[in-house]
Structures are given as structure tokens and as C-alpha cells.
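ugh ok fine here u go
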Amino acid sequence: MRINGLADVVSLTPSLGVADCGPASPNLTLRGIGSTDRDAGSDRSVVVFVDEVYMGRAGGSAFDLFDLECIEVLHGPQGTLFGKNVVGGAIHYISKKPVAETDAYLQVGAGNYNLLETRGMFNTPLADNINGRFSFSTRDCDGFQTNLRTGNDVDTAENVSARGEIQFTPSDDLTILLSADLARDRIYGISRKVAPASGFTAFLGFFPDPDPRNVQTNVDGFFDRDIAGYSACPHFPRMKSGHGSSAPSFPKKTPAVCPLATVPCLAVPPRQEKWLRNPRRSDHLST
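structure:
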């Protein structure tokens, strides 16, 4: 199953919806519960986590996905598991973890509008009980809409993402995962389609082009996102009660991420072994 982004997750998950108000402000709803605030720096009722780390701004929620183990879609309040921010539900992306074997792959794809995308991974043991994994994703594509006012193609894509992980297993009772990621997202031209022609638009003397691939704005605009973050997450596999894991982490800086992904599963039930989770704060990174 190929899942490249949030829209693919929504299409495969009953009761999960997204109102695309632009790449900086996806508005998620789960079982009809969501937020009306469309600001890129706001907290939402349905939020996104990456390896248990809270993506603290809505502008960093929609990104390309790559090298994932699975995706959890959790219905309803998840304050016990993930903290006070999760009122309506949560989407939890779980990346593939380093293993004690050497493995690698490289994938290259191409398409119309000069689409070129790559993704790859390299996994290797670094020492006894220490394994490392590095993965990356890139995507570049020309715009598929035309601004009739400026004559330029808009909605281009230029995305680069990378993730590095090191996993220590000092004993059977403790595993420590160190993770760092960064991403860069550049879009030229944010298309906005005017409402269909009506008596009101005719009264104003404006007649929108009926072609959905044509837009009419005075400026093309642009959208830049950068994100970087790192975390340290100890897990206690053999604990039979109390915390199943603890994930102290440094805040993610949003807005942005831009991975690609092939995801083998969608897991709906929450992971019951984690009964307490502190909310993760996130600093807004202006661009």
C-alpha cells in the first residue's frame, strides 16, 4: 500500500476528514470533531504525532511520508495516552526502527509535469547492541496550474526530508532510541480558485475561468516550510505496569516536513501499554 501524505491516510480511514485550507493549515476532523481555527500556529483538536512526539503547530501536520512502520488513527480524547492537546483524536506516525542487520534500498520515480521523486534507506549495526538507520525522501515537480494574470505555473513542489535514528539496547529491560529529522519544503505559487461565475461576480465585472487548472490572482505567492527536531525515547519492554515507555524530547520546530512513504498498515486501536503521556510543546518557526 502506497501512502505519500495526509490525504492518502484520510482516504483510507473512515470518519477521518481534512479541510485543505492550504498547505500551512490543514484542518483535521475525526468523527465530526475538529477545530475552526485555521491559523498555521494554532493548536488543533485532532493532532499529529511522530514517534510519540507532538507536532505542536497545525502548519507542520501535513507532510510527505516515508520509511514508516505503521500509522495509528486514534478516535476520541487521548489525554491519558498523549496529553491534554489531544481532544478529538490523534494520528500517530511510527517510523521503522534500526535493526541488527545491514540493509538498504533506493527508489526513483518519475511522472508528468517533470515529476521526479526519490527515497532511500540504509540500516546497519554500529556496535554490539547499537544499530543505526538513515532514510531520506525528495520530490520535485512543476506546477500543474496556470495563473492567467501572471502567466506562470503555480503549485510547484520542491521537497527534501531526512531522518536518522540510533537505537541502544543496554539490557533486555531497556531500549533507548535517539532520533533526529529535518526537512525543507518550497512551493512556488499557492493557487486559489475563485467561486464559480454567478450573478454576484457578473455584477462585480469578474468572470472566473471555468478551467479548474487556471487561477486568476494578482500575485503568484509562495510557501516555505522548514522543520528540524530531535528526541530521546527510552522504552522498558518488560514492565508489566506503569509506564510502558517515556519519551522526553526536544520540541519540534514547525511548520514543515516533506517525506514520501509506503506504509504496510493502518492501526486504529490505541496502544494500551502507554497510559501516561506528557504533551509535547512546539515552537513556531517563521519563514
